[in-house]
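dumping the sequnces here before i forget
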Amino acid sequence: MALLEAEQVVMRFGGVVALDNASVDVDPGEVTGLIGPNGAGKTTLFNVVTGLLPPTSGTVKFDGVDITRAGVSRRSQMGIARTFQKLEAFNTLSAFDNVRVAVEKNHRAKWKHQRVNDVAHEMLGKVGLDDVADVTVGTLPTGSARLVELARALACRPRVLLLDEPSSGLNEEETSSIGQLLLELVADKENDLAVLLVEHDMSFVMGVCARIHVLDFGKIIAVGTPFEVQGNEAVRAAYLGGDEFRGAYAGMDE
Amino acid sequence: MIFGVRHSVAVATALGTLAAVIIAVFTWKGAQVTSETFLVTTYIGLFLGALWAMYATGLVVVYTTTGVFNFAQGAIGVFAAFFYWELHVNRGWHSILALFVVVGLFAPALGVVLDIVIMRRLRTASLVVQLMVTVAIMVLLLSVVGDIWEADTARRVPYLFGINNGIDLGPSQLPWHRLIVFVVAIAIAVAMRYLLRRTRIGTAMRAVVDNRELAALNGARPNVVSSTSWALGSMLGALGGILIAPELGLDPATLNNVVIIAFAAAAFGALKNLPMAVIGAMLIGLLRAHTVAWLDFGSDFRFAHLSIAPLLLLFVVIALPQARLEVGRLVHHLRRHERFTKWWEGLIGCGVIILLAVAFSGGWLDFGIWDPGAWGSRELNSANEAMALALIGLSLVPLIGWAGQINFAPLAFAGFGAFVYLKVIGGGWVTFLGLDRLGLDPQDIRDIDNGYWILLVGLLCAPLGALVALPAARLRGLYLALMTMAFAQAMSLIFFPNPWVMPIIGTGRQFPHIELFGVTFNDRRGFFLLLMCVFAVVVYALVMLRRSRYGRRWMAINDSQAAAATLGVPVVWTKVVVYALSAVIAGIAGVFWATVSGNVDSVQGFDLLIGFNIVLLVAAAGVSIPVAGIFLIFIPLFTGLGHRLEDSGNVDFLVTLLDIMTTYGPGMLVLGMVFNPRGAIFEMGRGFSPILPWRSDARAEIAAENAQKREPEIGELGIERPFTPEEVIAIDRRLGILDEVVPKEGYGAARS
Ligand SMILES: Nc1ncnc2c1ncn2[C@@H]1O[C@H](COP(=O)(O)OP(=O)(O)OP(=O)(O)O)[C@@H](O)[C@H]1O
Ligand SMILES: [Mg+2]
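..and the predicted 3d for all of it:
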């Protein structure tokens, strides 16, 4: 049984069907990809899983427990953490304080100031933001603010980490170090972490994901290894006209 | 779900009905209900409902199309009613002509001007700024009315076509005026519904609020749309004011309070559903008419029927479904540096406050004008009032300033604190609880140091604050604003007027001099020192709190509630806690506020409008900064100075000037927030940063902003994005081809 399962999720906004019986499952110990063209419903699925949107129908299960009706902060305490595609960092706080909010909420209340600070620094270190710890996030470049969100999510000690386009705003070097970090995190058996990754950068996705779900117009049209998904006719058709796959192939061929 | 109805709706309906039945049973007058009296009461109710529906329609139209909730809707009606009186009664114009000039010309012009000068700029502003600015407009309009049409003459706005002409209904008569009001109100609501749902401009209007850029791409013109809706909203407010004035009398406060009923009605339609809002207004009208007809609350609760709207709002708020946490709505222009005060800075600041206080009140500082040696009882009284108000203002700092939640009821909490204090030190509760049988003497109670009681007052205020916030904390911030306003209104209608609450006994002090640590603060100078010390202590506590995990969490929910929730922060609970804290501070401050004069008129002293002014002044000063409360000194300072100038004779001009500053100051200052949302103190800090060695952060920020503003280098232009019009001008200037005609927007886009 998978750690996180979204089953037959339907999400309607008035006339728009953003998710149409979409089912996604995520296992610990690997990075699972979720790709699809613009407007496919990827972010909507994240919102349903984290509880920000109540689905029209369908269920979300975490560790075998039905959490479809659980509140947002409850789910977070169970171990679901995420980042946002449209930044939701605490702009008036420093990067360090952004992370501290998460640490303080997810570790025992008895924790001393010093320990909270140590953990927060460790998380910032993991994403490579030690230098700007004391800078107000609102004044950081988008890419760094995105990393602050990642550090914040990591500070929640998550069991499932949902990342919504973490590479946008980052340069190639930073992107590959994030990929490296993700692989290290899931490889560490102690963490027992599952990652669900939404990405437009195909070479990044193909590089780190063990399995990939492909979403198109709210429907899951393919599930499989990167290799299987690239060969899938339906996937090619869905991306027709988009450059992303062609770019990815170019990257893979080299 | 119960019978296909949402749980919360079922619960709220049940609670509401239960409350209504219980109240009705206990207050039944015993008058005979005939079908005739019942019908007449019903028609009065429907007529009242129609009037309120008109206001509510204006609110809903503006809110659905611009996203701004207009607290000034009632004040526009007040102004229009007075203007109409001026033209029709005072100048003798024909009623139709006067009506046309006020509703057809003046009101839309006012709406458009408001939109162009202010409202448009609020589109991306935070809720705090949006609300503060509309409240400021409300206060300013009321002040203007008070200045133009002084309260010393009695005025009446006549009914259209007189009260005696109308349809004969047998036992009574239905005047044309009321019939017309009813028909017009319904017609307007239907027309607006049609306009919004069925017409092109209506669709455009609704689309603009959802996504301005997208709507603009599709050919909607956002500025035209928002001006249109402000014009419409303002016309509806004006018409409502003129039509309701004959019924309520031409009194600014009474007329303005109508707006709370309209708020409740609008909330009944979840602020966006026009038909439901109209039904809500009718419901309140019917409840009100039948309450007045059949129930008798006795003289202690003589205003209880006026609190139907606040109560209905409460039940509506309980019924509404939990709001989704919004994502993708970060307020971007507020992203400048939030500076944390260091602990030693806080300590020094508070020390300075106390030293200044000692110096001023002790007469060791001589500034000439004030001649502190001569600080008489009047000046000290002003200063004490100021400090007590400032203390109340401090209660808003963690709430509005840090957590970004609104509270329009600081004075209601303060009043509650004063009330609890009065009851607690009186010792009457000892006998009431039967503790005297355990050997406790009420007299002993009076000997206990007041400090303990003040702390107890604080503790008792916390649950009240939590209770007020609890139902609305699940909803969008606007509902908390409405709830606190309704709470303040209900308190001043039901609670404070009750003679049992703060009875005024003879000429003696109702609130005794405070006794702390064995010292009785019975002279004004000593009390001033005490207030300054309390202020400094609270400021310091707040500064420390902000640096703590709680402060961080509050600022986090202010920035993004969705993100905070996904990190495990219980958002609703966090908000409730901040309200409780705010109520604690306000309650304690209330004790001091009441003790300044010793006798508070509980109705006047804790009035809703004064509360608004406190909120406005603190907000204008910069509500995230603890010492912003000091700004409240303006109110009594100006009055105090005014007194002095009057005493010294022939400076009428200055007295008038101070008068104007007192009345218009708060409102004007808040309008400044449109441009400086962080408030005056913040901007002053930035302004003085070049000479303040420790403000290197502000200097860096200014430098960064200036770097952005400098004229672009040609070499770095237009590579990845279209030229901005400024850049086009810069390029053309360098190339020497600048035409007289300055290119308009779209020029750069066309080139790229
Ligand atoms: N709150 C909302 N209200 C109405 N429609 C919405 C809402 N959120 C998403 N949608 C619609 O649902 C669809 C899916 O959107 P979503 O943001 O999930 O796509 P996505 O796969 O994340 O796209 P992208 O790659 O651009 O991020 C889109 O058509 C979008 O317009
Ligand atoms: Mg997305």
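Residues 153 and 250 of chain B are 11 Å apart (CA to CA).
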